[in-house]
Amino acid sequence: MAEQKTLFQIIKFAVVGAINTAVDLSVLNMLIFITGIASGFYFSAFKALSFAVAVLNSYFMNKYWTFAVNSKKKEREFSQFFIISVGGIILNVGAASFIVNAVPDILNTSPQIWANVGALSGTLFGLTWNFLGYKYFVFKKITK
């Protein structure tokens, strides 16, 4: 039964992750479109901002839907969520920035496409970290 519950949580987390990826990429691409900048320092700053917007959305969706927690210790819970998310943003932005700025574009795509390849790669690194941290640290239900 516990395995089935975890499987449903993973499926819900994947749906939330897909929505958050869309939010992340939408904000990132809007910033790239507005500025015309798709690499370097500003790419990293844009990626951090787009990820932060997606993380805020993630908190509410994961809290109330994926893990269905109605905690009364909201400040502590959000602090824990923030700590896990900081780890996620470091992994996400670090991997994305490394790919965009240090890995040669072997696909010979446009800078905008390569920025999205980097962003999606960063998402994969952050995904695993965030699921485990949210499930076992932030939204862990205490059994009596």
Structural class of the helices, strands and pairings?
A: mainly alpha
Percentage of residues in helical conformation: over 70%
Global mean pLDDT: 88
Order of helices and strands: HHHH
- Count the DSSP helices: 4
| Proportion of residues in β-strands | under 5%
Give the biggest sheet: none
Number of domains: 1
Description:
- The chain is an all-alpha fold.
- It has one domain (2-138).
- It contains 4 helices and no strands.
- It has helices at 2-35, 40-66, 74-102, 111-138.
- Helix 1 (2-35) packs antiparallel against helix 4 (111-138).
- The longest helix has 34 residues, at 2-35.
- The model has no long low-confidence stretch (mean pLDDT 88).
Describe the protein's topology.
Elements lengths: L1 H34 L4 H27 L7 H29 L8 H28 L6
What's a concise summary of this model?
This protein is 82% helix and 0% strand.
List keywords for this structure.
single chain; 144 residues; 4 helices
